[in-house]
Design brief:
The chain has 131 residues and is mainly alpha-helical. The chain has one domain. The chain is 52% helix and 9% strand. It is built from three helices and four strands. A two-stranded antiparallel ribbon has the order 1-2. A two-stranded antiparallel ribbon has the order 3-4.
């Protein structure tokens, strides 16, 4: 007669091993999730600063070209004018009918950018301040 020796073969994982793996994955996720959220906030902040710089630059160029802000004396009014209709240069400066405009900004982007801008009444323009 032939005898078969049964070997103690372990197939699969034990419950303890699975719990350890799940705990390690949970710890890694707890570290990674706040970092990912922080990266998103930093990206939105950088985008708002870039939009604010663009708005201030276009406003300064338009003022240098002889454009008139009209009755706009607030940052939000000037931003809306720059985004919606633009500012038109004067013929005295050689920029007759040149429209200075910042297109494609949503209302939330305008609001975010406006926190980095202020209105200089003496120069009649908006000023970018990144702090």
């Amino acid at each position: 007669m032939k005898t078969n020796i049964v070997k103690n073969v372990k197939a699969g994982f034990s419950l303890v091993e699975m719990l350890v793996v799940i705990a390690v994955i949970g710890i890694i996720a707890a570290i990674a999730v706040p970092t990912i959220g922080n990266i998103t906030d930093q990206a939105n902040n950088s985008k708002a600063k870039r939009n604010a710089q663009n708005l201030a630059s276009v406003c300064a160029s338009a003022i240098a070209a002889g454009a008139d802000l009209g009755t706009s004396t607030t940052v939000s009014g000037i931003i809306n004018q720059l985004v919606d209709t633009g500012l038109t240069g004067s013929s005295d400066s050689g920029f007759d009918s040149t429209v200075f405009k910042v297109p494609n900004l949503t209302n939330s982007e305008k609001m975010a950018a406006s926190q980095y801008l202020s209105y200089d009444a003496q120069a009649k323009m908006i000023v970018y301040s990144p702090n």
